[in-house]
Structures are given as C-alpha cells and as structure tokens.
Fold this protein.
Amino acid sequence: WMYSGGEGTWMSGSNIGSQSGTYGTQGTPAPGNVPGARQEAVTWTDKAGNFWLFGGQGFDSAGTIGVLNDLWKYSAGEWTWMGGANVVNQAGTYGTQGTPAPGNVPGARDSAVTWTDAAGNFWLFGGDGFDSAGAEGDRNDLWKYSAGEWTWMGGANVVNQAGTYGTQGTPAPGNVPGSRQSLVSWTDASGNLWLFGGLVFTPFGTGEVLNDLWKYEP
C-alpha cells in the first residue's frame, strides 16, 4: 500500500491471505514478481528511496509455510528477488567473520531488527531462526549488507547464546548481546546502533523478557 494525499492506494500483492511468492529470476525485476504472504519480516529504505524486505514467517514459492531468508527490493513499481532462498527454513552460510562473499547469507528468521548506517549499508541483528547447522532458536548474529553481498560481522553462528556483558559503559571486542528476538532498535546522529530488550526462550520453552541496553559503533 501507498498512503499519499490522505488516501491509500493498493500497489501490489493479493487481496486474499496466505499467498505463495512469485520469485522470477534472481536480480531481475518483473511486474509479476511478489513476495509471499508473511509476518514479522524486517525492512530497510536505501538512499534512492527503494524499499527492501528480508525474511519473516510466511509462504515460499511452493506455498509451504515456514521461516524465510529471502531478500527483496521494491523499486519503480516492481519487486526484485535479490538473494536468499525461495523455500523456507534455510540454514545460514556465514563464511569468514568480517569478510564479504557472494555466497554468504543469513539463515531464515523472523522478529529480528535492522537499521541503515550513515554510508547506506544495511544491518541485521538477531531474531528467531536457523543457524549454520540448521538448528532453530534465538539468534545473536550481526550482519551487514553492502554492494550486493552479506558480511557476518559478529555474534555466533549457532543458536541460543548467552551474552558477554563486560563492564557497563566500556566497549570491548568480546562484548556481545545474548540471543534474542522481538527487540527494539534505533540509530543516533552518529550512526551508532542502539538495542534494547527482547524476548529469549530457555531450553524448556519458557520466555524471559530482557531490559538490557546496548550500543554498537560500526
């Protein structure tokens, strides 16, 4: 939908629920392309005003419901499938931490957080999804998307990790928030990321709600 001049306009997608995605050819926009129905996805807006969408829980190209790791761009009235899989419940491909590579991709997830830095790069943290081995749980991995490639920047490539807090107010290379989902985030005037709270599940399935505050300087 687009809202402009006090009116809403239906721009794309179906007016009925539970629709599968039409992916087309990766990297190629087409009028018929459209992401499958989903919830708890994450989004960015780039410097050109294009809209980007990643993951969430929903329907893949075959109409199967699960957790997604597909990356989409909406520009000039058309969707483009930019990366990730067109089927659900995919493990992540991490590569080497700090090194971008064409084959790198975060595992399928929902309820993560995102932000855009001052240079226009996209960042992704956490959520509930799949790790490098295909295990599902809460995540604390940090990713950057720049120039068409993903880079694993920090956190673990396995699920359900405890946080390393260090000394309050003092940055350190080993500090990292614990795995979590459904947290909130914002950026300050300097382009630093701030994270607060979230939900983490214990091995027994009991949810615990957090109130820790973190700052990340890219």
Q: What stands out?
A: The radius of gyration is 17 Å. The mean pLDDT is 96. The longest strand covers residues 65-75.
